[in-house]
Amino acid sequence: MKAFDLLPFLIARARRSPRWLALLNIVMGRLIPFNRPHGFRIAELAEERVVTCASYRRANHNHIRGIHACAIATVAEFSAGLLLLSRLNPGRYRLIMSKLDVEYLYQAKKDIKAMTPLSAGDLQDLIVKPLETAESVTVIMATEVSDSDGAMVALARTSWQIKRWDKVRTKVRQP
Fold first, then answer.
1. 80 or 167: whose pLDDT is higher?
2. Domain with 70 in it: what CATH number?
3. Does residue 12 lie within any of the structural domains?
């Protein structure tokens, strides 16, 4: 069984149990090895929102000891992508981030969290229904990044192309 086949199962369990959420964080560290040294983790995995975190630690610092802009962008991307993966079966749909736009508002000098929402209505109206007739859709996910004091650090907008695997024409290995 492939790791991506386990994701829907792990995500469903992680929504209800801190132990399963801890296991999902370990699995995600292996699936996305780039994120592991930075300590990005899933803090909350609800049906309509995901919260991911990054610690204020040396691996995430820039030259003035704030959290690096790329770490902020990556934790926001991780939050949005995970929310989509948690709502759409990765065995059925391919997700590709096509654009990342980040507006930096405040220098983070503390732990940060990225929160991405997606209501059930928006999921149906923006993704599921259009994919019944269209080959692919592009959806823009907004993620708010704030520090541990609640100060808004950044607003990230990630654009995701979503397509059913049976509509993919390039030769790629399906998860």
1. 80
2. 3.10.129.10
3. yes
Helices then strands, counting H and E runs in the chain, come out as 5, 6
117 in a domain, yes or no? Answer: yes
What is the DSSP annotation of 139-174? EEEEEEEEETT--EEEEEEEEEEEEEGGG--S----
CA distances from 154 to 50, 101, 102, 151 (A): 16, 10, 7, 9
Mean predicted confidence (pLDDT) in 60-78:
94
pLDDT value of residue 112: 97
CA angle 97, 32, 14 (to 5 degrees): 95
CA 35 to chain centroid, in Å, comes to 12
Note whether residue 76 is domain-resident.
Answer: yes
Number of domains in the chain: 1
| Containing structural domain, residue 129 | 3-167
Q: What is the mean pLDDT of residues 7-13?
A: 90
Establish if 173 belongs to a structural domain.
Answer: no
Total-model pTM: 0.90
